[in-house]
Amino acid sequence: MSINHAILGFLRECSLSGYDLKKRIQDSPILPWSGNNNQIYKALVELLEEGWVTHEVLHQESSPTKKMYTITESGEAELRNWVLTSCEPPEFKKLALAQLAFASGLTDAELHQWLDRYEQELVSQRHYHEEKRRREAIAPCTGRRELLIQEMIHENVLSFYTSEQNWIQRLRSAIKRMEEGAE
Fold it and tell me: One short Pfam family name for this protein (predicted)?
């Protein structure tokens, strides 16, 4: 997936400025990009060159001038074609597992401190996404099916953090049993 397709997806719902796109991409729990200005504006230039978006310059009296981007019919067709392609397999890369794999030099206390910090980060992230779920949808809804899909995406994101927390608790229990057996 390219950031271009994500932008087309957001523009399918409504016209947006580059700044609006940046906020949506940054706030999305499912997109892999940081949403920095270079990524977004480079993608918008490419989309304009392809004819998949147009833009209108809006002059505002009390605010800076801004460009509003809108998806074109050919952009809609490109988005549809992309959505219909086979999806990439999910990536399974976790820095936390790499850190654990190389944690043999840690003392028991250091390992438990690391697990505490990681678990607290998981709790924080889960609470963040739960609050975000309460406040907003991933994308504007156009119907019941889209609402259902958004709810299921939120459920998937939350289940990751819950599953990871459960795994940490099982790891702690296994370490405790091992430490008790060694004494």
Answer: PadR
Sign of CA dihedral 119, 125, 128, 130: negative
Does residue 90 fall inside a structural domain?
Answer: no
Pairing of strands 53-58, 16-17: unpaired
* Alpha-carbon span 81 to 45, nearest angstrom: 20
Whole-model pTM: value is 0.69
Range of the domain at 65: 3-84
Nearest to 118 by CA among 94, 88, 141: 94
Inter-residue contact 150 to 165 (CB < 8 Å): no
> Residue 32 pLDDT > 80, yes or no?
no
CATH of the domain at 26: 1.10.10.10
pLDDT by residue (tens digit) across 152-173?
888 998 999 999 999 999 999 9
What is the distance between the alpha carbons of residues 100 and 96, in angstroms, rounded to a whole number? 6
- Of the pLDDT bands very low, low, confident and very high (cuts 50, 70, 90), residue 150 is confident
